């Protein structure tokens, strides 16, 4: 049973990674720069 759930989790991870990749591929330069800025801000605030 545990192996089944592990396999399911792996499958979900690969699907979400693919979807995230597709989303990133369709982002505009402006959106990317906003995300980059946000990430940098978060890193500085830590």
Short descriptors:
single chain; 46 residues; mainly alpha; 2 helices; elongated
Count of folded domains: 1
Mean pLDDT, to the nearest integer, reads 85
- Total beta-strand segments: 0
Helical content class? over 70%
Our estimate of the beta-strand percent is under 5%
Helix/strand-derived category reads mainly alpha
Q: What's the alpha carbon Rg, rounded to whole Å?
A: 16 Å
Distance between the ends: 39 Å
Structure write-up:
With 46 residues, the chain is mainly α. It has one domain (2-45). The protein is 91% helix and 0% strand. The chain contains two helices and no strands. The longest helix is centred in the N-terminal third of the chain and has 25 residues, at 2-26. The mean pLDDT is 85.
């Amino acid at each position: 049973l545990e192996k089944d759930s592990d396999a399911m989790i792996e499958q979900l991870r690969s699907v979400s990674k693919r979807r995230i990749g597709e989303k990133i591929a369709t982002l505009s330069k402006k959106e990317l720069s906003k995300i980059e800025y946000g990430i940098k801000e978060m890193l500085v605030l830590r």
